Amino acid sequence: MHKTALAASLLAMALALPAHAAEKVTYLLPAPAFLPAFGPWMLAKERGYFSAEGLDVDFQAAQGGADSAKQVGAGNAVIGGAIGDTPIIVRANGVPVKAVALLGGGGLMQLVMKEDSPIKGPQDLKGKTVTVLSYQDTTYYALLGMLAKVGLTKNDVNIQSAGATNVWKLFVAGQADAMASVPDWEVDATEAGAKIRVIQADQYFHSMAQVVVASDDVIKTKPDLIKKLVAATIHGVKDIMADPEGSARDYVKAVPQRQGQERQMARVFELYDKYVYPGQAKLGVMDEARLAELQDFYLKQGIIEKATPVKELYTNQFVE
Q: For 84, which of 38, 70, 96, 186 is 20 to 30 Å away at the CA?
């Protein structure tokens, strides 16, 4: 065969071969993916950060952060999303997972009240009604932490478990004096006409931002995979921090439930950038002292029965 014809034949054969298939990965989130809290993940997928790492990511919803971590620990998913306190809670119960990236130096919870409210701090919550997502949620634990700092307990406050919608609707309707909120609900409340004030939980109690969790086994056997997943997720966080408006436009493309909500989602992202994401020397790195302080509080409150050595709760190897 003529050399030119042979080269053409080989080229045709090469082009006919299927491209290397992307590795399929199940990524568990603690709640449905359309919630704005998961903006970094959706943005990373929409902008191709996972596919650039050779990954085909399928997002699935668990029943909260603890459930996400338990399923990851059981091997039902390679990786999951949760909150900074989740490894403290589940590891104490024998679930072999660690935090592999902390997505921000702030806390996820803010105490929100009406602009004209007499509440100036957690000390003024005595006898008041406060809504929370649930009694098992991190926002509730952060509220307990704020109360403890001013000498109050849950028995001094009427804390209502209201669910993801009523947590802000009851507040807007005047049926609650305050809410233990995340940025998403602050925007919901203001969109509904409420004029609000915000007190960051961090001013009283060092709760934590969202984390990425992986099992001890996968960290040991597939570290390159975890590094790729973490890198893509953090890329999404960085994009939101750099450009909330542009990120909101692409986010809405990825999430059909948010069509037409570009302005609202941009405001949510601005609040995450204000309250949750800043404050780390390097984005993703776990603050061990903060984690230890949080675990001590959970132990004193009886939320966990025993402490775990803090270094077993996280690893920074994928973000350093």
A: 186
Q: What would the pLDDT profile of 258-287 be if each residue is shown by its tens digit?
A: 999 999 999 999 999 999 999 999 999 999
Q: How far apart are CA 274 and CA 105, in angstroms?
A: 11
Candidates 3.30.420.40, 3.40.190.10, 3.40.50.920, 3.30.390.30; CATH matching 110-203: 3.40.190.10
Cβ 197 vs Cβ 115: under 8 Å? yes
Can you tell me the distance from the alpha carbon of 122 to that of 106, in angstroms, rounded to the nearest whole number? 18
Instruction: Give the CATH fold of the 23-106+209-312 domain.
Output: D-Maltodextrin-Binding Protein; domain 2 (3.40.190)
Among 49, 47, 54, which Cα is nearest to 22's?
A: 54
Question: Residue 242 has which token pair?
Answer: 């750099």
Terminal CA-CA length for the chain: 55
State CA 294 to chain mean position distance: 17
Q: Are 316 and 285 in contact (CB under 8 A)?
A: yes
Give me the half-sphere count of Cα atoms (radius 13 Å) on the Cβ side of residue 15. 6
The pTM for the full model equals: 0.87
Let me know if the fold of 23-106+209-312 is the same as that of 110-203: yes
In SS3 terms, 59-76 reads as EEECCCHHHHHHHHHCCC
Query: pLDDT per residue over 91-146, tens digit each?
Result: 988 999 999 999 999 998 999 999 999 999 999 999 999 999 888 777 898 899 99
**Residue 169 neighbours by CB distance under 10 Å:** 18
